[in-house]
Amino acid sequence: MIRVRMGLNDAHYAGELVDGAKLLELFGDAATELLIRSDGDEGLFLAYDNVEFKAPVFAGDFIEARGEIVKKGRTSRQMKFIAYKVITSADNSELASACDVLEEPIIVCKASGTCVVPWERQRKP
Question: What's the predicted TM-score (pTM) here?
Fold first, then answer.
């Protein structure tokens, strides 16, 4: 699990909307950690087979990205990812620093993909 706050530098569009590629970057970081824990090596991200953007993400939002290995082959690792908005900037122009913790996190993105750890690089059974 990775939790980060989206900053103004992550905003790419009008209204401080964050580029969806930033969420895929978080999934890539989650995949790297999963591969290190599973195989002792960072491996390589081969491909996403599905990506669904479910809700907008804005500068100031806190995003939690989670991943899991759902199937292991000899060198391939199929993974699923989900990202949640857990804290959002408050809609209050008088308090620019105000934020709200969401009672129910909002799913902002789902994805699945395949990573590869070459056999000769695997260091854990």
Answer: 0.90
